[in-house]
Design brief:
single chain; 19% strand
């Protein structure tokens, strides 16, 4: 029994085809649409369904999105699902009535989940014959990426000041962001992130914590087995058995302590609290859900930011071949590229391994990689840095030492706050700043906001070369 992420080879090597999302010169509002898809991506689910694999997608209406622009040339006819066909011969079709769950059969050979907005399909084979045939028929156009390499968020860091967890039993009277970072100035001007969508991929969020309870948080739990119809992803009231995601959400968007308290929060729980690990398939499913939310008709032109505190190390873990690992790396980069193509700015934690330990996705040029400094602007010893494929990591720094934010609640509903340290804390600080910039100038593209953050930094002149990127990200 094997699970794969099927990604079109052309999407790994190139950007999505330009479409009606607003790529013409002078057009400032980019509307998300199926124009971001690759034409060939629709072959995979058709082929898998013809082999008897069962859809693992929940039934229900998907958000309405625009179709890719049609050419004046004669349309090519889609070949049967079992046929090989050349690239771009199958037009992507979006079922606006939602996929229908197929009945289980005694001869079930596997399951699949089509994710059209990121142009990928997850497939889980319980039949070796079906796996072999699928590879024969789709192998020319698709990479079969084994979903076996685990991702994890940066390991916890002991700040050494407050001792055990849960020492902070109530919120501070005031936000503690220094005046130099510009957060207080932005709030005084009424710029608090309103109108911006902030997505978070993490351990979840406690929607009933005082820091978050007076808002509607769109929340999805992506199960350990996202490819299984028996363990479907669920849209439920936000929860977080770990507290890490709640802390991250509090920094970026908490009502009392957040950088951008008026954003609309979209949180996907994709990381387990016990192992702090996830899989490429779960991250892909979380991104697909976020893009579906961001692509709804009422959201299609709104600015968006995604925060991710997770990643791969530079070298493959024990027991994983270099080829298999590189496939996972390339697929993860493709997913981030889909966010940028959709006018979504991805912000990622650089990692907590110290100098010379930069990994992925921080090392991808599509990501805005964030390292950590303390409130005195000194680079944290744990903050990852390095050069990977001629790219220097991190890009910028954020406050990531002893940062105060929400964590959890006791059974009697007593809420806790805590100081945590890590690039996981620095990244949502920068994500919050990005939301402030996108709130102030919603017509700017994701890449323009990235440049704005990189151009408006506080320099850290006494820092060793390569440890702090451009400097400390601030709002100006």
């Amino acid at each position: 029994m094997k699970s794969y992420l099927l990604v079109p080879k052309e999407s790994i090597e190139t950007h999505a085809h330009p479409g009606v999302r607003g790529t013409e010169q002078g057009e400032r509002v980019l509307q998300r649409s199926t124009a971001l898809q690759f034409m060939i991506s629709g072959r995979a689910p058709d082929m898998l369904r013809s082999l008897g694999l069962r859809s693992a997608t929940l039934p229900g209406r998907l958000p309405e999105v625009s179709a890719p622009p049609t050419s004046s040339k004669k349309k090519k006819t889609a070949k049967p699902a079992r046929g090989r066909g050349g690239k771009n011969e199958v037009q992507v079709a979006v079922n606006n009535d939602g996929p229908v769950m197929e009945p289980a059969t005694a001869s079930e050979v596997g399951t699949y989940r089509h994710m059209p907005l990121i142009g990928a399909t997850m497939a889980h084979f319980t039949s070796e014959q079906a796996e072999r045939v699928a590879k024969e028929e789709l192998g020319r156009d698709f990479e079969f990426i084994p979903d076996t390499v685990q991702l994890t968020f940066p390991g916890p860091v002991s700040a050494g000041q407050l001792g055990p967890r849960n020492q902070g039993l109530s919120s501070l009277i005031n936000r503690e962001w220094p005046e130099e970072c510009g957060v207080n100035s932005a709030h005084a001007q009424g710029i608090k992130g309103a109108g911006v969508m902030l997505g978070i991929l993490d351990t979840g969020v406690d929607a009933d914590h005082p820091e978050h309870q007076n808002r509607l948080i769109q929340f999805r739990y992506v199960s350990l087995f996202p490819n299984s119809p028996h363990n479907p992803a669920r849209d439920v009231r936000g929860f977080d058995p770990d507290g890490h995601g709640t802390h991250v959400a509090g920094i970026a968007a908490g009502q009392f302590h957040g950088v951008a308290p008026e954003v609309d929060l979209y949180v996907a729980s994709v990381i387990e609290s016990e192992s702090i690990r996830t899989s490429l398939g779960r991250v892909a499913a979380g991104m697909e859900w976020l893009l579906h939310q961001f692509s709804r008709p009422e959201n299609a032109t709104r600015p968006a930011v995604v925060n991710m505190s997770l990643g791969f190390p530079v070298q493959p873990p024990q027991g994983v071949s270099d080829m298999e690992y590189r496939l996972n790396i390339r697929a993860l980069q493709t997913l981030l590229r889909r966010l940028v193509d959709s006018n979504v700015l991805p912000i990622v934690a650089a990692g907590n391994g110290g100098a010379g330990t930069a990994g992925y996705p921080a090392a991808f040029p599509e990501a805005l990689a964030v390292g950590a400094v303390d409130f005195s602007r000194r680079v944290a010893s744990f903050s990852a840095s390095g050069v990977v494929n001629q790219r220097s990591v991190p890009d910028v720094m954020g406050y990531g030492v002893n940062v105060y934010s929400s964590t959890e609640r006791r059974c009697n509903n007593q809420a806790f706050y805590e100081r945590m340290s890590g690039t996981s804390m620095a990244a949502p600080y920068v994500a919050g700043l990005a939301a402030l910039y996108r709130c102030r100038s919603p017509d700017l593209t994701a890449l323009e906001v990235r440049d704005l953050i990189l151009d408006n930094v506080l320099k850290l002149p006494k820092t060793p070369t390569g440890r702090a990127g451009r400097g400390l990200a601030v709002y100006k």
